[in-house]
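Reopening this ticket.

The earlier resolution said the output was attached, but the attachment link was broken on my side. Pasting everything inline this time so it's all in one place.
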Amino acid sequence: MWGREWKQLPPDAADWRSWLILGGRGAGKTRAGAEWVKAQALGDWTDDGAHAERIAIIGPTLDQARAVMIEGKSGLLGIHMEGERPRYEPSKRLLTWPNGAIAQVFSADEPESLRGPQFDAAWCDEIAKWRHAEAAWEMLAFALRLGTQPRAVITTTPRPVPILKTLLADPSTAVSRSATFDNKAHLAKSFLADVKDRYGGTRLGRQELDGELIEDDPDALFRRALIERGRAREVPEMKRIVIAVDPPAGHGKSSNACGIVCVGLGFDGLAYVLDDHSLKPAKPLQWAERVVALYHARAACRVVAEVNQGGAMVEQVLREVDGTLSFRAVHATRGKRARAEPVAALYEQGRVRHAGVFPELEDEMCSALREGAKSPDRMDALVWAVSDLMLRRQAEPRVRSV
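Inline output:
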C-alpha cells in the first residue's frame, strides 16, 4: 500500500467524518487526497468492493482545482492506471470512472453551487485559502448525505483561520500532520536546501514547511480576527485606487522582496485591499513592469513609492516603463511600527477590508516587528497605500472603477 503511515494513510478509527491533512509545501497532501478519492471511486479500501457513487472535488477556485487536484502531477488523472482512469469533461466540471462513479468539480468561491447536489464523499483542497470557507463548508456539510458513512478529506497548509479552528475542535475530525522534509525523497535537493536556508526556524517556515498552525504573535499590531471579520465578499465602486511600492535596496537572492499592494477607497468610505503582487527576487525593471501593469489593470489614480532606499531611481525606473503614470514619492521619517500604528487603528475601527485572501501579506501583518527580523515589505506597501487613501488630506479625486 502506498503512503507514509499516519501521514498519508486514512485513520484507523471508524467514527471520523472529516480527515484533516495538515502539511507543509510539497509534503504530499495532494497525493494523499487524490489517492483517497481514487480509493473511494474504485472501492479499493472496502471489504466488499463497494464504491462511492458521487464525489465532490472542491478547490479554492475552478482553475486551481483543475490545475492541482485533477491535472497536476499528483492529481487524479495522473495516479490512475490505464483502464481505471476517469474521463474528464472540463466543460461539465465532471469526472466519470468506468464503473459509473462520478465526481463534480466546484469552486469554494461559489458556495451556492453546492446547494442541491448530494454526495457520499468529498475532497477539499487548501481550505485555509478559501475566501468564503465557512459558507462553502456549511453547504458541503448539507450535501454529504449519501451512502452509509459520508466523509470528507481536507488537504491544506495550515493557517490560523476560523475554519481550521472549527475543524480541529470537532471531535469527528481525524488529523494527520506532515512536514515538507517528510517527503524529501520526492523533492529537489536544491529546493530543500533553499527553503531550509531561507525559512528554517522562522515563523513562516514553521507554517509553510513544518505544517504548524501558527497563531498571532502577541506583539503584532494587526490581528487575524479583525482581518477575517472585515473580509469583503463584494467590492463596491471605487472612488480612488492607488498602487503602493516598497522597493528593495538590491535585487540579489539575499535582497528583500519588492512590496506591491493595491488598495482602493470605496464610495462607502472604506478601504479595500485589492491585490498583493509583491515580487521576490525583484530586479528594478521586473518590479517596475509589474507595478505599471497593475496600475493600468486597476485604472489606478496614483503610484505611491517609498524612496528612502532608491531616491530618484525609483521614479526613474517606473517612468522608463510608462512616462505617463501619476507618481508620488514618500519618505519614511518614522520607524515601521510608528507608521503602521494608525493603519492598525483603522483595521480596529472596521474601516479596512480585504477583498480576498492574501496569505503572505497577512502573515507579515500578524507578526511582530523585531530587530533583525525579515523586512515586512508587503506590509510596508499596504501601510503606504492605506495612509495615502485614508490618512492624508486629498485633493478632489477623479472617479475610477475596479
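Reporter confirms the inline version is readable. The two ends are 51 Å apart (CA to CA). The longest strand covers residues 238-246.
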